[in-house]
Amino acid sequence: MIDPLTATCPVPGVETERVLLGHGSGGQLSAGLIAGVIGPALGAASPGGPLQDAAVLDIGGLSLVMTTDSFVVTPRFFPGGDIGMLAVHGTINDVAMMGAWPAALSLAYVIEEGFPLDELRRITESVGRAALAAGVPVVTGDTKVVGRGAADGVFVNTTGIGMRLPGVSPDACGAKPGDAVLLSGPIGLHGVTILSVREGLGFEAEIASDTQPLHRLVRRLLEVAPAGVHVLRDPTRGGLASSLNELAVTSGIGVEIDEPALPVPETVASACEMLGLDPLHVANEGCLVAFVALEAVDSVLAAMHEFPEGEHAVRIGEAVEAHPGQVLMRTLMGSHRVVDMLIGEQLPRIC
Amino acid sequence: MIDPLTATCPVPGVETERVLLGHGSGGQLSAGLIAGVIGPALGAASPGGPLQDAAVLDIGGLSLVMTTDSFVVTPRFFPGGDIGMLAVHGTINDVAMMGAWPAALSLAYVIEEGFPLDELRRITESVGRAALAAGVPVVTGDTKVVGRGAADGVFVNTTGIGMRLPGVSPDACGAKPGDAVLLSGPIGLHGVTILSVREGLGFEAEIASDTQPLHRLVRRLLEVAPAGVHVLRDPTRGGLASSLNELAVTSGIGVEIDEPALPVPETVASACEMLGLDPLHVANEGCLVAFVALEAVDSVLAAMHEFPEGEHAVRIGEAVEAHPGQVLMRTLMGSHRVVDMLIGEQLPRIC
Question: Which of the two ends of chain B, N or C, has the fewest CB atoms closer than 10 A to its terminal CB?
Answer without folding.
Answer: N
